[in-house]
Every structure is written in C-alpha cells, then in structure tokens.
Amino acid sequence: MRRPHDVGGLEGGPIDTEEHTLEPWEKRVVVMRRLLAQQSPPVMTLDALRRGIEDLGADDYNRLSYYERWTASITNNLIHQGVISIDELSRKMEEVETRWRKERTS
Amino acid sequence: MPDHFHAHPEQPDIEDTPFTEHQVMAQALEELLIAKGFFTADAMRKGLEGMSTASPADGARRVGRFGEAAAFEERVLHSVNDTAMELSLHVGQIPIHAVKNTPQVHHVIVCTLCSCYPTALLGGSPDWYKSRAYRSRVVREPRAVLEEFGTHLPADIEVRVHDSTAERRYVVIPMRPEGTEGMTEAELAACVTRDCMIGTALPQVPQP
Amino acid sequence: MIPLRFAVGQRVRVRAVFPPGHIRTPYYTRGCVGIIESLAGIDPNPEHLAYGHLGHPPVPLYRVRFHQPDLWPNYGGNLQDTVVVDIFEHWLEATAHA
After folding, report:
1. Residues of B classed as catalytic
2. Interface contact flag, A48 C49, Cβ < 8 Å
3. Closest residue of chain A to B52, computed from CA coordinates
4. CATH of domain B56-197
5. How many other C-beta atoms are found inside a 10 Å radius of the C-beta of residue B201?
6. What does CATH list as the number for C11-94?
7. How far is residue B207 CA from its own chain's centroid?
C-alpha cells in the first residue's frame, strides 16, 4: 500500500510559488505543538505528530489544510494519551464556537 | 411518537462562519491544556512573539550570516578539491547537514513524506516546500521543477535531490557566482537567497 | 559501538515490503537498488518513537544514493542524476548486482 502522505513520484500540478504568512490561529498551533514537545517527558513528539497526520486517511489528508492536519493529529494524540477526554473536548469546542459566534454578531 | 420527533436539532452551518471546525478545535485544545497546567498563557504569548521576530527579516539575516560562512567555506574549499564536500552544521538540537554545489553536482532539498526543513537556520518553510506538488514532483522531475522556478541547469551537471526522511535536515551551499571576485563576505552573502539554500535558485550578483 | 551491516560504496536494495504504520522509507524507493553514500548516524527508531516508545535500540541510518533511471521508467533528465535518501538499516539488504 502507498499511504496518502507518501507522495514522492506521484503526478503533481504546477507549483504555486506564492507565499503567505501564517494566520494567527496557525501560529498558535505551531507554538502549542512546540510547548507540548518541550514538556519533560514530551507530551507529543514530532514523530507522533507525523504519525497522527499519516493516520488521518486519504480523504482528510487531502481535504484538510497543512495546519488543520496538525490540529487533527494533536487532538488524536492527546485523546489517545488520555490528556483530554472526548467529552471535555466537545464541551470546550461548543463553548468556543458559541463565544466566537457571539463576538462576530456583537 | 419517535418518528414525529425532529431527531437532529437545528444547528447553524459552520461553513457559514468565518472560522472552521479545526480553528475551533485548536482554540479548545489550547484552553484545555492551559487549564490543565501543561503550559501557561504567558508561554503561548512568548512563543508567538518569538515567531513574529523570526520572520522574513530575521530569516534573511540568518541566511546572510550563513551565506558569509558559506562564502568563507567556499574560499577554503576552493584550495582543497572539486568534489562535493560535506560539512556538519549544528543549529539547535536537530542536526543540519550541508551539501555543497560544485560544477559537477547541483543539490536540491525536499521532504517527500511531510515537510522537514532546516527551520533553525532558514526560518519557516515556504508554502511551496510543504505543497504536494513540490514533494511529489521534485524527486521525479527535478529539472522541470527547477525550470518552474526560473532556474536553468546545464544538461551535463548531476542534479542530486536529498529527501530528508529522518532526523537530519539538509541545506545547500551554493556555488560562488561569476563576477564576485574581490567581493567582501557581506557582499557575497547578499547574493545568497533562501531558495539558493534549498537548491531551487542559483545565487545572483545583485545588479547595480 | 553498534556493528554496521553496510559499508560506504556497498550496493544495497530497499526491501520490497509495504506494511502499514509510520515508516520513513518512501514508497518510491522500495525494491530499488542504490549505493551507500555515507553513514548519517545511529538514531532512535522513529517506527517506535511515533507510537510513544523510546526507540531503543538505536538503528544505523545510511544515506543511500539512487540513480534516477533506477527509480523511474523513462526518466527525462541526465541519466547521471541521483536521489539521496536517509534509510534505516533494517530496510536494506545486501545485493550483488541489479
């Protein structure tokens, strides 16, 4: 099997050379990932981050943006380790979404 | 009775919002991890500040400093031999391995499996380096990819692509361009761009 | 000091197996023949690290250089063009000639 991230040699289109600076939420993901790796022992290593991204499956791997894949991987790793529970994540996500909707309509 | 119930509560479609599901997820993770004491809001703030100073200007400065070192190495190596020489350069904890362009060999760097990059030396990687198109094509057709960057290589040079599959990162030391005789190291550094150190560009003498 | 199975200049073949899991040996190299360019180091095994294990014992990591025509049918560039890949020892086997 060839896994979805293992793309060396596959067909690819033209390369878009335009660069963009990271969006604020993307920078927060980068910093969060680094802080998790710097814990002693690391909560999540780079290897675990990569594995989590690879395990997303072809649909999500191709559909999600680069830092969305990072977010999905970090989440899965933290759930797997019991650092966060699915239940508390769902409640916090609900709270964040409600807060943001309110902020955007006020 | 059950089949008269509307089983799914009305939910505003998240696609109508300016934020995505994963942005919500990332924010939720951050708040939970701070509440649980894994790191502080202050640590996040410091990390973000560190990122904004490590932006193009800082990256250019680091490239320039390395360009000076490369120019110096070039002069030293010039008196040794013409074969590709390899140096070990350590910046931070992840080892960075330098590969030197010669008249016989032009090096190009990629990470086909994810996007490993010598961030400690060059700053954040460009979007195209992370892109599927670059990662899939540069190992298979490096010359065509370099043409897309406007980089033309002689047919008889060996193009050597380095796929950074393990913990080592790679950086290219470009060849000294013609017309740079008598330049100071700082002037030589101005010829060396970030893309030269990935291998997708050749150093240019800045036009007056 | 860990004994090394391969020497610089030796011809090696990447094992043509395709298991699942976190692997840092790219698909395009599987079954291909290259030569050992150098020993990159002796590293903890990412196949273990990725699953939360310590990655011991560490494994020799080689830079393996492949000629492009040996990787792809109808390679369009200079036939001397190469790709160098960092590959762990357990993914390599000795081979006499291609």
Report:
1. 111, 114-116
2. yes
3. A27
4. 3.90.330.10
5. 18
6. 2.30.30.50
7. 26
